[in-house]
Specification:
Largest sheet: 3 strands, antiparallel
Distance between the termini: 22 Å
Structural class: alpha+beta
Shape: globular
Helix content: 10-25%
Number of strands: 5
Strand content: over 45%
Strand order of the largest sheet: 3-4-5
Low-confidence stretches: 10-15
């Protein structure tokens, strides 16, 4: 998962949730990195969830795609009393064969 993947300015805060180019760019960077480090295997991004600057991606090796079932994503806004997406979390949940897994990417207030 990534955090603060957007410029923290007024334009970024308005447009980032709709900025599919930025998300696609990060997806390609991770995919190329995986395929470079783990030679002989290809990867597919099966799931992604974005909320403001908080992004989570699930990459699966192509020979394991059929083992991934019951996928779902979620996001929770906690900034400004739950109204703003500048703080909060994105998560991915899925079953890999007989094992249930959940990954959470959260960006919360300090202190």
């Amino acid at each position: 998962g990534l955090q603060e993947m957007v410029d923290l300015d007024v334009i970024g805060s308005v447009m980032c949730n709709k900025d599919s180019d930025r998300v696609n760019n990060w997806e390609q960077i991770f995919k190329q990195g995986l395929q470079k480090r783990i030679e002989g295997h290809k990867f597919t991004c099966m799931m992604r969830k974005v909320m403001f600057g908080c992004l989570i991606l699930l990459f699966v090796r192509d020979d394991s795609i059929n083992s991934v079932k019951k996928m779902c994503t979620s996001k929770v806004k906690t900034g400004a009393g739950g109204m703003a997406a500048n703080k909060g979390s994105t998560s991915i949940r899925f079953n890999y064969e007989d094992t249930s897994l959940m990954f959470l990417n959260c960006h919360l207030t300090s202190g």
